[in-house]
Write a structure and sequence with these properties.
homotetramer; 299 residues; Urate Oxidase; 12 strands
């Protein structure tokens, strides 16, 4: 019996990390959109792989040019911008059946000069990066919004107790510790008529509020509360997934120096760290695998 | 009609990036294993998320301790070490149905001192990092080996021609350019009785050889040739996936300075870069989605 | 004639990057100090280097312990904290004649929850990192304050013209471009009775204002204006030094696509970048070299 | 009495991180030079800073172009390439009195294909980066060679004992530990007729050998031995400076799990780390401050 043939499997290609900055300057008060955009196409590219025939390979350079050209008309929300790119590529090349478009968006604040907001001077603000992904795949279309690098910390109101023990357990229980994490979250919209910027701002606020309260018996509980809060308030969101490190802050033992340490002095450790990943979903709603393929840090 | 309830979806948690170094020193010639290990458990953790009940939450600290304790008996190949961890956690806690264990392995070379290899002095070698992932999920068990950061370059024997053009295309065709990439590859073993270290060394060599030759009409073609070569030589490998940037080296236009540039002086660009991702598989063999969930950069 | 002997030159050693977090929690409204502290001692350490005699080597581990122990009493401004460390080490060990103490300080904002500032939940804020260095050297004592990573951008009001040309010049003149940089600045205090926190806040504001206005004929001019403004307003500051990349934003040529680009669509380039470094000083005031040794990016 | 005027202090400017790759292809066996070059000019640039007059500002873009143009004739050693740039800029513009030119050089190895070295396929090799700096300043000219990121480790033959103790000392003495560091070293050549490539290769070897042996009573002693060895063998080197982290590998306490740990299982910690910096020099030879200004990590 012969071996099965070796063939091409799933594939996509494109241009990654196109750093496009769009200035809107048709009025005195300028606006700035600062994006890092990746475009990848899916479709019938077997000949390029197997035979070296590039007749279907829309150059990655062309994809880059298209991103810059489309920015000329304005960017808007990153989700809307990616949807325009998706529509263009899928409708322009019959062998392109879909793709994956992603953007990071960096926020800028107006400088305050002499007590007033400046018209055209900005300072990079915040720490988190807003993320967006559009996946199109043979008629399906998915929009994932998100954020990464939102670093938050509670100085109290957090503990970890009543966990199982085995021969490798040495951890002490606590009802008072620092809880700190870098939130990475992605949520999938269930429908198309969304005000993406307003939804983003609202979700960000809800995540912060649900991190702050109530008492946290563990990062899993806090994560779930954050997700639940978002789904409760946003009917247009079908599901939300998190990848959150538990950034350990260890209370330093100062007793060798004749000092107490009532949870005031901590060592902020780098590695290892806890890593908590979970989805919060609506019961019975099936999550499309295509939307989440290739996204790190989620199971 | 009532809204669907909000519930917990897929989840996993554990300790990430445990930097364990094991020295084997029962003979004069020491050996060193240098790993970065992540352990994440899957199973019934709903109560912790929804009710704050940690009775099922094997602490991430315990997972870390277990990694160090298991290293005491020796590490061996990263794949074998992760399999030991998987067996332990799945068999020790009835509510743990599986998990994901991953390791990066850093290579060290013996120093040469006075013309001879030194017994216990080492220098970090190579550029790539060897990677391993074990996914266990309700009886299934998958082993992915891989490497990342293997930076390779050809100074000639590469071109890109005969691609489709549209109104956004400005790229010029070429039959002679630099081809450079950082190879990230992951391959899945079809069976369990593998000599992981030997297979790794062989796959690495095959990837290099298939990158070097023959003429490359595009990075897709080279990628496919690399994957095909590996599958041809390794019946124990079911599939291999790649994520490879096209690291552009642009020939600099020196004509304003009265100089020619016959592909000798290049600007090595950072961003944007091409990004080529594909799987090379055996026909008819179904790839288990669980093996690849949450791995970035592959579709 | 014999060769000159080989001897030990200048040296210092210590513990780097101690990540200490201090929570002040003696009232409901907690405060947080988040520092990355480095301590290095200078003095008579020749025997350790030349003879392997550690009798003078205060362990780097002890230096770390001291940082945590001193944090127990409160941190205050990073400059004041480093001065306490300097006093301690110089006075505690007769062979320690001085040293270098440095800190990065990360800022946290209170979360807003339900319209009010939260007592103990915080989000990492801003982008820049506040820096402080104390150098003590045989009786001299220098305090450098600073910041790094303050990313600012003007969408207009900047140009570059009337520069010299040679055979390698291809740059076009412009009176309208994006001006963007990551400000790294360090300033030296001329006296000891400084309110370091207030001075820092004021300098940061002045730097932003002087970046925003007036029209910039080049980054050198803007840098000088920023420094001048700080020295004008702060008699307690003896000098200020800057290292500022010119983060190029290139207007994309959209004409191949039938589009104009009146400075609206830009490519934000990574490398290479301009790099402008200069000191703004008070005439006749000699800068102590010891204060600035080993600080990167300043001439 | 009037305040001293505010004036411009020391300054330099230029283009940083020009990523130039030069392929030598006049024979079948290609060669590759891969550099990251920074050029900064010093001289009379006061008018640009104070008055916004750019008549002396050789554009950073021109400096970049010059780097690419000069690479057309071949690169050679990074030191020689930087010296050519220095000569050019100082001789071409009368107001340019000097500057600082720096390069990182990345090493590539030929691939082995079918048992033979390939003519034009390469893999990035080694871990360390070779560094070079040329400082020219009103007639003075200094050449600093160096390397960074050379990660080395000894599994035994290292200890730390007989250090002073105070109330903050908790460290235990040891005669057997892992010693690991990332070597950053820079050395200054005393004369101009140096074979820079040969000297580099020799110094790198000597550094490794002197790290490997003899028994290390502390990183200071090992550092000094490394420097001494280099100066003994290289009369053309006037001095050498090091910045070396003590990368702590802590033996993990396995006793809670009923296991011993005879220095076999270690946790490789990230932060904090020891930081040892020192110069090894020839007695009576005065080090020119201009050569070392603005180089991080050395006192």
């Amino acid at each position: 019996m012969s071996e099965p043939a070796i063939v091409l499997g799933a594939n996509q290609y494109g241009k990654a990390e196109v750093r496009v900055v769009k200035v809107t300057r048709d009025r005195a008060r300028h606006e700035i959109d600062d994006l890092n955009v990746t475009s990848q196409l899916r479709g019938d590219f077997a000949a390029a792989h197997v035979e070296g025939d590039n007749a279907h390979i829309v150059p990655t350079d062309t994809q880059k040019n298209t991103i810059f050209a489309f920015a000329r008309d304005g960017v808007g929300s990153p989700e809307a911008f990616l949807l325009r790119l998706a529509d263009h590529f899928v409708s322009s090349f019959e062998w392109v059946t879909g793709g994956r478009w992603a953007a990071d968006r960096y926020a800028w604040q107006r400088m305050e000069v002499g007590g007033a907001e400046h018209d055209h001077a900005f300072v990079r603000s915040g720490q988190e990066v807003r993320t967006a992904v559009v996946v199109a795949d043979r008629g399906e279309r998915h929009v994932l919004a998100g954020l990464t690098g939102l670093t938050v910390l509670r100085t109290t109101g957090s503990g970890f107790e009543a966990y199982p023990r085995d021969r490798y357990t040495t951890l002490a229980e606590t009802r008072d510790r620092i809880l700190a994490t870098d939130v990475t979250a992605r949520w999938r919209y269930a429908r198309a008529d969304v005000d993406y910027d307003a939804a983003y701002a609202s979700v960000r606020s809800l995540l912060l509020e649900a991190f702050a309260e109530p008492y946290s018996p563990g990062l899993q509980s806090t994560l779930y509360g954050m997700g639940r809060r978002v789904l409760e308030e946003h009917a247009e969101i079908a599901e939300i997934r998190f990848s959150m490190p538990n950034k350990h802050h260890f209370a330093v033992d100062l007793s060798p120096f004749g000092l107490d340490n009532p949870n005031e002095v901590f060592h902020a450790a780098d590695r290892p760290y806890g890593l908590i990943e979970a989805a919060v979903v609506r019961e019975g709603v099936v999550s499309p695998p295509a939307a989440w393929d290739g996204i790190a840090g989620f199971c």
